[in-house]
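Protocol step 4 of 5: obtain the predicted structure for the target chain.
Materials: sequence only (see below). No template structures provided, no constraints applied. The aim of this step is simply to have a reference model before the mutagenesis design in step 5. Sequence pasted as it appears in the construct record:
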Amino acid sequence: MFRNWRIGSVNGALLGAYFIPAWALVAFNIFVEPVHGLYERPSVAVALFLSDHLQMAGIDTVRAAWLLALGRLTVVAFFVIHLALVCIPRTRKNGGSDEALAIALLIGSLISFASMVMASKVGEMAALRLHATELLLLLGAAIVLVIERPEAAPKAVAAAAPPSLQPLGLEQAELLHNR
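Step 4 output (structure tokens):
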């Protein structure tokens, strides 16, 4: 049953199991109450950076909070797509779910890196540890995804084809009157 599971698929499923509920809950809290949700622990570094360093007004802070929540929900959506594609054995075996995982890893890494830099600038150590941990999780999964390649298709099919169906070299042209 578990013979066609790749390490990247398992790693992506485990990351999805963490990021889907964690980031969806944070995004939902920001959508319901933008200012209060932005000042909770996972986003407090972004809120402090926006208010202290960029000196944003209230409505601009709400817009930035919604943009952060939209980015987090985008990552959640791509993790959900990856988990749905991982459930199909043929897609899992040939690496068809890797694109959704790669997009989730890319956007999530950008959000975590930016949040980590903002936490460093405002001196929020708990948020810095959280975002650094999330960034390391995402980068580790990206490394596994890059190194691990899907299974290659069997080459025995081309050798078993009759000579009339084998690919022609560049010096041989196949025209209708040339058969």
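Step 4 remarks: The chain has a mean pLDDT of 85. The CA atoms of residues 83 and 176 lie 49 Å apart.
Proceed to step 5.
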